[in-house]
Structures are given as structure tokens and as C-alpha cells.
Amino acid sequence: MSDCNTRIIAPSLLAADWSKVGEEVRRAEQAGADWLHLDVMDGHFVENVSFGPQFVAAVRPQTRLPLDTHLMMTRPDKYLDRFIAAGSDRITVHVEAQHDVRETLRRIRAAGLGCGLSLNPATPFDTVVPYLGEIDLLLVMTVVPGFGGQAFMEAETMPKVAAARDHREQLGLSYHIEVDGGIDQRTVAIAASHGANVMVAGTALFGQTDMAAAIVAMRG
Q1: Residue from 34, 39, 42, 68 carrying the catalytic annotation
Q2: Other C-beta atoms within 10 Å of 7: how many?
Q3: Whether 109 contacts 101, CB under 8 Å
Q4: Which residue in 27, 164, 196, 205 has a CA-CA distance of 20 to 30 Å to 189?
Q5: CA proximity to 25, closest of 50, 3, 52, 55
Q6: pLDDT score of 52
Q7: pTM of the prediction?
Q8: What pLDDT score was predicted for residue 145?
Q9: 77 catalytic, yes or no?
């Protein structure tokens, strides 16, 4: 696993041109991306619908980059095995979803995958504290999830990122701290200063003509 102090850039395929997804995946890889982020939305946990395990399976043979699959689903436990089989390298589930969080995390780890937990901007940080010793990654949503292109919610979310960093140090843990939503060349510095090291960005990367330059800028 990468060091939790190493900055990781994870372009979000939600912002890619899906009519040529293979090309878009290769563009991100050639531009220097570290991971690819796949946002799965069920139309229930969040308002939007994106894609399912078949899409993840279609992306898998196109790249050697780790697939960072984020399940924004009410019942991630029901669909988990399909996303494992599709070729995800890491699966992140929400603490707010309707499932036994500890059991879902155990199943992800038992499959040999990286294990992530996410919380929304309105969710108190204390909600995830009981699980911090069982995860490889904590994803702090920096917008209300469901749609791309929203503004970065600094005041609501950066204290949680800082709390995640402080807890990690106090408890001697090594999970990554990931941020997703409104991340660009400006806000990446704010997130990093509070302790985030995995930066998920959509339009700020796939929307650029020169993605390599955009990634270099995000590395700081």
C-alpha cells in the first residue's frame, strides 16, 4: 500500500467521455494518474444514477492502474460481490448506508481488496471513529454526493479531514485520507494542508486538454 503521506491523484471517470472510455482511461494513465476513481450511484442513496459492475469490468482490462470504486449505494452489502468480481482494487462504502458497516468492511478485506469508508459533509466525524482501525482509506466527501461540478465545501469538511489526520497519528494507524468533490488545482492545496493525501478530481482533470500538466499542478 502507498504511504499515507504520499500524494495520490485519482481522476474520476464520472467526468470522462464515456463514448470513448477506453481512450479516456489510457489518457489518464499516460498523464500520470495514480489511481482511477469510479463513482457508483444507485439513484437511491444519492439522486443520480451512474454505472454498475459491468462498467467497472469494462474498465479493468484497459489499465493497470488501481480501480478505486466508491459505492454510493443504500445497500452496498447486497452488490459487493459483483464489484469485487468486476476487478475493483479498492472498495469504499458509506457509513450512512443501510448495512452492517463492520461486516461489509470485513468482506472487502477478506476478498483481498483495499477497504474504504466514506462520510458525507453533514455526517459527524464521530460516526466513523469506531471503524478507523479497520480501514485502509477514509473518504471525506467535500460536496454533497450525487453530481459532479459542485463547489468545494471547505468549512464543513476540512475539520473532518484534520480530525482524521489527528486520529491516525494518535492511534498509530496508516489509512489514506481521500477527498472527493470540488477538487482542483486551488482546493487541492487546502485539502492537503489539512491532511488529505488522495485527491479525486473529475472535470479539473478530464476537462483539461493537457491532463498531464493538470496532474503535475495537483501534485504541488
Answers
A1: 39
A2: 16
A3: no
A4: 27
A5: 55
A6: 94
A7: 0.96
A8: 84
A9: no
Paired strand residues for 116: 92, 137
> What is the predicted pLDDT for the residue at 148?
65
Low-confidence ranges of the chain (pLDDT < 50): none
Q: pLDDT averaged over the chain?
A: 96
- Grid coordinates belonging to 55: 462498467
Kindly list the structural domains of the chain, giving each domain's residue range(s) and its CATH number in brackets, ordered by start. 8-219 (3.20.20.70)
User: According to the model, what pLDDT value does residue 146 have?
Assistant: 75
C-alpha span between 165 and 4 (Å, rounded): 10
Q: What is the pLDDT of residue 147?
A: 67
Residue 61 backbone class (left: φ over 0; alpha: ψ -120 to 50; beta: rest):
alpha
Catalytic, 180? Answer yes
- C-alpha cell of residue 196: 488529505
Name which of 45, 167, 159 is nearest 99 in CA terms. Answer: 45
* Contacts with 101 (C-beta within 8 Å, 6 or more apart), sequence order: 93, 95, 117, 131
Catalytic residue among 34, 68, 136, 180, which?
A: 180
